[in-house]
Amino acid sequence: MAKSDVKVLGAWPSPFVMRPRIALNVKHVDYEFLEETMGSKSQLLLQSNPVHKKIPVLIHADKPICESLVIVQYIDEVWTSGPSILPSDPYDRAVARFWAAYIDDKWFPSMSGIARAQGEEAKQAAIGQVEEGLVLLEEAFGKCSKGKPFFGGDRIGYLDIALGCFLGWLRATEKMNGVKLLDEAKNPGLCGWAERFCSNGAVKDVMPETDKLVEFAKMLFAKFKAPAST
Q1: How many folded domains does the chain comprise?
Q2: Which of 66, 137, 177, 223 has the most CB within a 10 Å radius?
Q3: Domain that holds residue 178
Q4: What is the share, in percent, of the chain residues with pLDDT greater than 90?
Q5: What are the tens digits of pLDDT across the range 100-143?
Q6: End-to-end Cα spacing for the chain
Q7: Do 114 and 195 belong to one domain?
Q8: CATH number of the domain that residue 105 is part of
Q9: Which of 78, 109, 127 is the last residue of a domain?
Q10: What is the rounded CA–CA span in Å between residue 178 and residue 26?
Q11: Which residues contact 169 (CB under 8 A, 6 or more apart)?
Q12: Is the confidence at residue 153, as pLDDT, over 80?
């Protein structure tokens, strides 16, 4: 596949943008990464995703595909010569989709809620929600991996990508708040998995550095706190 036929519209700090990038790397597909400027939307983005007007967008043969997990499934179905991303068994596939939805709908919002919390009590409550979610995901890892290195078994799969894209922000959240969310004692399986995931060849070049994310987050918070111009 020619490089110009596959493009990803995104921004480096976005965990959701990481998903299609990792999926394409798993499939060994060359692609062009078109960086969007934070705070503005390119004409190409607005044309490609007129409904939500947000990243990521995969453009394949001039056709746009939107929403990160939809894109990952599309990549898995189109480039069949590479390793499978979704489980082949229908039940395992349904379970992976269930947990991916839980991560996006429940777990990640609770993690981003730590930064938005007003006061120490609200912050501790948000931290507690994240930790409870990680206990559930630890159990899910044990069942989905069946004793193998990844949720997807011997190699990175759908649920690995769905959760793993947030590891950079998890570490940044830990550093900014002086907490340990992913704990060896409570989440031994996930801790080992996180190390394997981040060092994998499909991931390591697109996983943002923790310090870089912390600096980006500080800049973002400063912008939100600044008085709006009239």
Answers
A1: 2
A2: 137
A3: 90-214
A4: 89
A5: 999 999 999 999 999 888 899 999 999 999 999 999 999 999 99
A6: 49
A7: yes
A8: 1.20.1050.10
A9: 78
A10: 34
A11: 15, 111, 213
A12: yes
